[in-house]
């Protein structure tokens, strides 16, 4: 069976250390055997018996099945040894829930957390859709339980962050208590050290606000660049709304040096961004 986890044992250590790598989509292979995947995971988790040694859980995953993540979370919380979670790259969606099970959560300086609302495909009449809505609402509340237990943040704040689809850098994750420390850094992280946090709506609106300016620059360049790629001298415009376009003649202006085709591709990427 294609598993989304693998175990590695470092025999070189004085006491062998088991490392669990969670990679790819959580339970991506469990569509046809949901009852097998969690059982197999539990068997391998307790491979060393009841007096299990400490383990390291390395996560790099965009998420996946919420219920499989809940089972893994519970298994790790109940594990008798110490569970140290290391977020190597991305801990998004269901993977971020699993990360909350660690006795300590360590993040790479380059890693990112993402939390959002649960989603599912729903089909049928109004009653069927309402059942789906109720289910998603309850699943969201259960996910908030895991985040709140770890971070101590209010349920309202966490719910708002999930509504907005929030992305957090390593420093911001520590500031909000989703993580405890940054790997490879000798000095403790100052909670006021900064970091980024953004949500999908804010980014989308920011890009949309830039579109009129980008479109105006593209129109200007199309009108004043000949077939050979050389800039033609434009006529002075008396329109106050377009006077700023004259600044594009400045050879130091980087936008004026970008080929039209490249600008168009960038604009299409922005327009189609999700």
Description:
Belongs to the peptidase S14 family. Residues 225-239 have a biased composition (Basic and acidic residues). Pfam families: CLP_protease. Keywords: Cytoplasm, Hydrolase, Protease, Serine protease. GO terms for molecular function: ATP-dependent peptidase activity; ATPase binding; serine-type endopeptidase activity. Strands 1, 2, 3, 4, 5, 6, 7, 8 and 9 form a nine-stranded mixed β-sheet that branches. This protein starts with a strand and ends with a helix. The protein is built from eight helices and nine strands. Helix 1 (37-45) packs parallel to helix 2 and helix 7 packs antiparallel against helix 8. It is α/β, with parallel strands linked by helices and 274 residues long. It folds into two domains: 5-195, 2-enoyl-CoA Hydratase, Chain A, domain 1, CATH 3.90.226; 204-271, no CATH class. Strand 3, helix 2 and strand 4 (83-92) form a beta-alpha-beta unit. The longest helix has 26 residues, at 126-151.
The SS-based structural class is alpha/beta
Question: Any guess at the CATH architecture of the largest domain?
Answer: Alpha-Beta Complex
Distance between the termini: 33 Å
* Rounded radius of gyration (Å): 25 Å
The fraction of residues in strands falls at 15-25%
Number of strands: 9
When the domains are counted, the total is 2
Task: Specify the overall morphology.
Answer: globular
- Summarize the amount of helix as a percent range: 25-40%
């Amino acid at each position: 069976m294609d598993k989304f986890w693998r175990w590695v044992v470092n025999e070189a250590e004085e006491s062998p250390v088991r490392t669990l790598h969670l990679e790819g989509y959580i339970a991506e292979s469990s569509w046809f055997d949901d009852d097998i995947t969690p059982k197999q995971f539990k068997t391998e988790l307790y491979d060393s018996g009841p007096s299990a040694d400490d383990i390291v859980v390395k996560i790099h995953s965009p998420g996946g099945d919420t219920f499989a993540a809940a089972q893994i979370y519970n298994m790790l919380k109940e594990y008798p040894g110490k569970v140290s979670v290391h977020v190597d790259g991305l801990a998004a969606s269901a993977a971020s829930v699993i990360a909350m099970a660690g006795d300590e959560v360590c993040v790479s300086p380059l890693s990112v957390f993402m939390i959002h609302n649960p989603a599912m495909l729903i089909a049928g009449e109004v009653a069927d859709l309402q059942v789906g809505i109720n289910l998603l609402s309850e699943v969201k509340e259960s996910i908030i339980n895991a985040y709140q237990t770890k971070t101590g943040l209010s349920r309202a704040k966490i719910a708002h962050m999930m509504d907005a689809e929030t992305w957090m850098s390593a420093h911001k994750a520590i500031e909000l208590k989703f993580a405890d420390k940054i790997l490879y850094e000798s000095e403790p992280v100052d909670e006021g050290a900064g970091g980024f946090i953004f949500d999908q709506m804010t980014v989308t609106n920011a890009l949309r606000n830039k579109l009129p300016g980008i479109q105006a620059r593209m129109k200007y360049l199309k009108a004043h660049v000949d077939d050979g790629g050389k800039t033609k001298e434009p006529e002075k415009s008396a329109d106050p709304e377009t006077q700023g376009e004259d600044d594009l003649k400045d050879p130091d202006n980087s936008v004026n040096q970008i080929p039209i085709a490249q600008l168009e591709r960038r604009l299409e990427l922005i327009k189609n961004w999700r």
